[in-house]
Design goal:
The chain contains seven helices and ten strands. By secondary structure, it is α+β, with helices and mostly antiparallel strands. The chain has two domains: 132 residues, Pathogenesis-related Protein p14a (3-Layer(aba) Sandwich), CATH 3.40.33.10; 103 residues, GOLD domain (Jelly Rolls), CATH 2.60.120.680. Strands 5, 6, 7, 8, 9 and 10 form a six-stranded antiparallel β-sheet that branches. Helix 2 packs across helix 5. The longest helix has 35 residues. About 9% of the residues have low confidence.
Length: 292
């Protein structure tokens, strides 16, 4: 039998190599298809805090309730939850987590007062406490509020001996390992009380320049008195001053002879309120202006 030539052996070797490579490619395709089918039967597991039982909204409320528990324990009034403050606090916590920072100013440089104004909130004073902790921390509300109470710079916001704050909220957001907590509080209420002699007035600027707000804001007006009083509204100080000097009624609206008044108005620029004692005896008067 004649031996194959060198050229024939060379061609045969190349054919064998090509067949082997093609077989490997086909085998690889079959194996990949098998595993892809198996993978499609089992959806991917993504670790989230919802699946681990950490509810950020509930946690925010629990921290807020713990703050109020401390306030009551110290003989102070509880704060009222405000949804717009919550939106500002939550947004700041998300900003801290997203940019991996820890500051009272966001990346645009906005402070707590700027962020509350962006929520169209009227307030007289505002404050902020921040906290960052491991998401695995046990009893987070106690841990966070306890940390603030042990820090003089944060404690005074919660203790609030002078009753600066009336409303607040807590915003929480968590990453894979850390939680960011923002507590914002503010004062929406102007209040005063005193005695009025017969035919004397309380004169109240509903949109005082010292508040630092140029916009008009809705305001709830609550007045209580020991004897009936009259309440007058003026859209300009000139009409009010003319009324005081001459007694000529130039008011834009009025409520007469009441001991308990509850009303809602728009606090426009130059809007004034007069409370007048029309009785023949001194009367005790208290009022609250609740903005927003």
């Amino acid at each position: 039998m004649e031996k194959p030539s060198k050229k024939t052996r060379y061609i045969f070797t190349i054919i064998l190599i090509l067949v082997f490579v093609l077989s490997l490619f086909l085998l690889r395709s079959v194996i990949m298809k098998f595993f892809l089918i198996q993978a499609s039967k089992s959806p991917a597991l993504i670790k989230t805090y919802e699946s681990s039982g950490l509810d950020e909204s509930s946690l925010a409320r629990e921290i807020f309730n713990e703050i109020n528990r401390k306030r009551l324990e110290l003989g102070n009034n509880p704060l009222e939850w405000d949804e717009r403050i919550y939106q500002a606090a939550k947004a700041h916590s998300i900003d801290l987590r997203t940019h991996k920072t820890f500051s009272h100013h966001n990346v645009e440089g906005a402070s707590v007062t700027d962020r509350l104004k962006n929520q169209d909130l009227f307030f007289l004073v505002a404050a902020e406490n921040l906290f960052m902790l491991k998401a695995s921390t046990e009893n987070i509300p106690d841990f966070v509020v306890g940390g603030w109470m042990n820090s003089p710079g944060h404690r005074w916001v919660i203790v609030d001996r002078d009753n600066f704050f009336t409303h607040g909220a807590v915003g929480v957001t968590c990453s894979n390992s850390s939680c960011y907590v923002t507590f914002n509080c503010a004062d929406f209420i102007v209040s005063n009380k005193g005695t009025l002699k017969p035919h004397y007035y309380f004169k109240i600027n509903l949109n005082d320049e010292s508040f630092g707000f140029q916009e008009s804001y809705p305001v709830d007006i609550k007045i209580q008195s020991s004897s009936p009083v009259d309440m007058y509204f003026f859209d300009s100080p000139s009409n009010m001053n003319a009324f005081i000097k001459t007694g000529s009624d130039r008011s834009d609206d009025k409520i007469i002879n009441q001991t308990n008044i509850s009303d809602r108005r728009l606090a426009q620029k130059d809007a004034y309120l007069l409370i007048k004692n029309n009785s023949k005896s001194t009367t005790d008067v208290s009022y609250e202006l609740i903005y927003n």
